[in-house]
Amino acid sequence: MKNKITISDIAKELGIAPATVSRALSNHPEISASTKKKVKAVAERLDYMPNKIASSLRSGKTKLIGVLIPTAEHLFFGSVIHGISNLASQHGYDVLIYQSNESEEFEKKGIDTFIGARVDGILVSISKNTTNFSHFKSVKEKNIPIAFFDRTNDDLEISSVCIDDYLGAFMATESLIKSGYKRIAHISGPQHIKAFSERIRGYKAALEQYNILFDNNLIYNGDISIEAGRIGAAYFLNLENKPDAIFAVEDFTALGVLKELKERAIQAPNEFGVIGFCNDLFGEHITPSLSTVDQKTVQMGEEAFHLIYELISKKGEKTNHQKRILTPTLITRESSKRE
């Protein structure tokens, strides 16, 4: 079995001190460019692999970031992770991903896993079923840098990156009004999650702006799923005074609405308008294609990394929590384009 190459092996071959090799490999400014070049050439030839555990013990940093997502089923989170991992790699960080499966219990296990792995920082999108946030408070108390993305909670005073959910919902509802729909319903998400409470607030504001009376019968409390979209649409279509359009809290919910409409032979968009929120990949490939709000997922991931990197760099310093808010873009497709 081949012995693992160490810094001492490289030092012996070059006739220099192991400390010089270590500094050359970490690009220390006191080491000359020619020495760095020689050290790196020998390291590559001998197939040297750095011992990350030893390195982390010396530096106090593991160069690991934990990313906790609610689900891997939605392309949205994969796209955000793409933005995070791209920048992480450029800064010499690796990313550990843990899926909470929209469960508070699994979310807590994910946090424990990250703490056990001694990650330098944690990025979190909160599970829809989480109502006790003590595990996030515990991370703060342990002085581990933490930030939220997409699904946030302002009460915890934890830094965050999200889209302007209020503005996106306003734009979505307004686009339905401008397309000629008169009675617009909303299938919401769990209201203890700020993103979803902001979307219902934006929906109500658009109605008010266009002098449309808010009707509480036109709100269905869903759970961000295809099934919630189907059930919500069925609820509205069974009302005596039916709506003629639905703004769904996110794209999978909107997909459920379209499936229910198709089952009832109701044509979108001429008979009924539908718009979602997210701009998930499937939206442009279904029939009718889905109008939606683009959440700038890759940009969100990049901003999330910038934020956690900054918090890691300032660890130990007293800093105020930050809110970084991205501007959404309306994408109008077939599902809300009335002829």
UniProtKB/TrEMBL annotation:
Keyword terms of this UniProt record: DNA-binding, Transcription, Transcription regulation
InterPro entries: HTH_LacI, LacI/GalR-like_sensor, Lambda_DNA-bd_dom_sf, Peripla_BP_I
Gene3D superfamilies: 3.40.50.2300, lambda repressor-like DNA-binding domains (1.10.260.40)
Domain HTH lacI-type: 5-59
PROSITE patterns: HTH_LACI_2 (PS50932)
CDD domains: HTH_LacI, PBP1_LacI_sugar_binding-like
Pfam family membership, one: LacI
Highest taxon above the source species: Bacteria
SMART domains: HTH_LACI
Molecular-function GO terms, alphabetical: DNA-binding transcription factor activity; transcription cis-regulatory region binding
UniProt keyword Transmembrane, yes or no: no
Protein name (record): LacI family transcriptional regulator
Organism of origin: Flavobacterium commune
